[in-house]
Amino acid sequence: QVQLVESGGGLVQPGGSLRLSCACSGSLFSIYAMAWYRQAPGKQRELVAAISSGGSTTYVDSVKGRFTISRDNVKDTVHLTMNSLKPEDTAVYYCNRDERRSLLYPWGQGTQVTVTS
Length: 117
Known about the structure:
Layout: E1 3-7, E2 10-12, E3 18-25, E4 34-39, E5 46-51, E6 57-59, E7 67-72, E8 77-82, E9 91-97, E10 111-115
Parallel strand pairs: 2-10
Antiparallel strand pairs: 1-3, 3-8, 4-5, 4-9, 5-6, 7-8, 9-10
């Protein structure tokens, strides 16, 4: 059974940085495109960054130039480095397969990111 465990969230001031991590167990991690999603209160979950099995990346416009997605196919982990954080980045962040290419795994618990002064 696939298990996704996100970590690294926290409380940060505007302009600050965080690095999120997601450990994926129980799957053929390296062959799938992976993604980070976020869900803010009262809003639908959105895909913010994705990375192919080969390392190609895509980002939603609102995070381009500030967020970087990366993966480690040896450790079966995917990371999201977030710089220049804004209050509108506040959300619960989740990792999963890229929904545009594959069926989703069961969701993990997510990690809360709060950007506030």
